[in-house]
Design a protein that fits this description.
heterodimer, A: three-stranded antiparallel β-sheet, globular, B: mainly alpha, two-stranded antiparallel ribbon, 14 helices, 2 strands
Amino acid sequence: MSEPHEGRRRPPRRRSVLAAAGAGLGTALAGSLSACSASGDSAGSGVTLTFSWWGNEDRAARTTQAVRLFEKENPRVRVRTSNADFGSYMQKLATQAAGGGIPDVAQLDYRQVSQYAGGGALLRLGGAVRDGTIRTAEMGADFLRTGTYEDEQYAVPMGRGITGFAYDTRLYRKAGAAAPEPGWTWQEWAEVSRKIARLRERSPDGRPVAGANDGGVNEDVFEVWLRSRGGRLYASQTRLGFTEDDLTEFWTLCDELRKEGAAARAEDTSQATSTETSPMGRGLAAADFTWDAPFPGYPALLGDHVHFAPVPTTGGKQGAYFKPSMLLGVGAHTPHPGEAARLVDFLLNDPRAGDILGFSRSTPPNRTVAARVAKTLKGAERDIYRYARRMEEYGLDAPPTAPPRGDVAIQTAFNRTYQRVMYGLASPREAARELIDEAKRELRS
Amino acid sequence: MSTVSTEAPPGADRTDGPRRSHAPKRRGPRRDKQWPAYVFLTPWMLGAAVLTLVPMAVSLYLSFTDYNLFEAPSWVGLRNYREMLTEDPRYWRSVGTTLLYVVVAVPLKLVLALGAALLLKSLGRGRSFYRSAFYAPSLLGASMTVALVWRALFNDGGTVPDVLGAIGINTGGWVGNPDLAVFAVVLLTVWQFGAPMVIFLAGLQQISPDLYEAAALDGAGRWRQFVSVTVPMLSPVVFFNLVLEMIQSFQVFTPAFAISGGSGGPADSTMFYTLYLYERGFTASHMGYAAAMAWLLLIAIGVVTLFLFRTSRSWVFYADEEGR
């Protein structure tokens, strides 16, 4: 649910169908191999690596295909793959970590890095990065820093994502609002949202259309708002970077907009878990704060008049930043650290792997690979690539280091606590105090 | 999940007294014949030790620690318990939600089960068909699928809000409404009244027809017969069902998980005790806290069960102790 990149739905292309067919075969083989893994390991001089990730079928097919290519290049190495959807993957990985070891190579969420690195479940990758086994020259140094914990590299970004604003150009034009530009402000955004609500447009089921979704439930939106004012979510691994006043101000703004009908209704916000169930996806709002990776799902669902724009700023200061959509880490107890590092490097930097993986994990972090793959992009995917380039030129602050381990819990608490405001069970200030108390308890350890 | 062992039918321990007085006399000659019993019991006892007692001991230990699954548990004494009881408003909200649920769902379910059992008893032909039909939801109801269908029924644009809307009661979707979401869960549970119904039915069939005949001769109408014959004769079964359902209701999890998509929402309105426990343990990685919650739940269920057993003395009537 918290993974922002699964909303994408697009008609399957011939290439991905073929890839899926191939991968299906590959997975079947891998499955039968895993049943006799012990004998597989001891039979020859070969090395068997385990590699797991989460994601949809398209991502699974592409990843398996890239892994097969790696095996062909490294005949001594065999890779056993496994994947799942985000929720069950998170739990499985946690259980594996508790039971003594995560896979040799594992896809990680930004929010997991501190938890796993701090818990000794991840191998330090600094050495492999310095000796060039994992090449990072094509990645931004700031961006690479997102995989660090206490100044040590534990994970390497696998995709680069950024927040943005999906909006319905037809409704914006109808309301007489200008297309959002990189420097537009939160006040302008609030005004536009009110204007759209005043249009009294009707959704397919006959209800009034709001100007935007309610960002109050979303920690990511708050972070962007906070950063645009020069703040940050976390001051350190154990301290929040914002105050009760900051959060009260943000939630008051959201609360007012919702009460005026400029933001979506509480019931619709609390039930939104994907692109399809979001207020905008259901035709109940004209805009939605979202990530670049799931954005192509919106035009696919609603039509080509939906575009991707920058999030609002405070006096021209952008709060958005490039965030790793996911990272790769190596299990601390791997018997084959060298091979694991080689697999990581192959997936991130090999141009052929880049071609296969495409944008299935947002923009590839390797700039050369990204530029190469970008040439083949069309439609909404091309939009988000252009958007990222545009934001790079506009100038964004460096991303923060990986969030503290309590952030997983704080993120869900954020949503839940604001729900109490939406339903009138708490005032913005009471809710803010409640969240901060809870966050402090999460950060204490 | 922890379950207090109340599986023995009520009154089973009533015969303890007399038997105990004979025990010393019999123990001598019997002892050498007991070993086969222990041999046959060994697999079960091993299972009980390894799968129940050891995990329980570990859980008790973990409840005094801070344990996030990744690092070794660190001893924090009573901190988890103190935090739960004094610092965590959500803990008390989950207690409140669960109590509300128990107080509403258990009586409702038992009344429905008893009503259905009475109907079935008076039914001649087709009784077994209806019995199966009423029992079916209990078999299906525990599944995730049914809970998801339930969610769809009560959601925005679902059948229930639509039908209610058509007769002038505009509730909107229950699932998105913090005042109603909990009742969607209550109805899902109440609908699965098959298990207590079957037990009620068995109890009803145990009541001697002579009693009804005698009552009828004395001029008792249907209602009078129900109040003066059925209810007292059925009271051990009512008690049994009450205790069982109460214990189960305190541990309600699946329906709430499915209806809220695991979030306990909207706004924590379906955040039942066990769901909160699960969230603490598996989402927030506070296994020690979750273990402490589990122990307090065990104690709470134990206390409530004990209370029910105490009060039962004044309202449960056993046919074999008429002289009391």
